[in-house]
From TrEMBL:
One of its GO terms (biological process) is translation. Keywords: Ribonucleoprotein, Ribosomal protein. GO terms for cellular component: ribonucleoprotein complex; ribosome. This is Large ribosomal subunit protein bL28. Belongs to the bacterial ribosomal protein bL28 family. HAMAP family: Ribosomal_bL28 (MF_00373). Residues 1-21 are annotated as: Disordered. Residues 8-21 have a biased composition (Basic residues). It comes from the Bacteria. GO terms for molecular function: structural constituent of ribosome.
Length: 73
């Protein structure tokens, strides 16, 4: 929700160097934060990097960024 992280794509390469498609999924977590300005909890779907971003900028600023992207919380 915060960073817009999506899966990446690439190839599995076997010992014989044959290539088949694979997917690199982001480390997605569901976290629950207390939003003091609204007096309620919000549940966010975040990547591990976005969890660190919320810890550094604060939940209020993070929710403002998410809402600026047009995501309803």
């Amino acid at each position: 929700m915060l960073t817009g992280r999506k899966p990446g794509f690439g190839h599995r390469i076997s010992h014989s160097h044959r290539r088949t498609s694979r997917r690199f999924d982001p480390n997605i977590q569901r976290k629950r934060y207390w939003l003091a300005s609204e007096g309620r909890h919000v549940r966010l779907t975040l990547s591990a990097a976005a969890v660190k971003t919320v810890d550094s900028i604060g939940i209020e600023a993070a929710v403002a960024r998410i809402r600026a992207r047009g995501v309803k919380i």
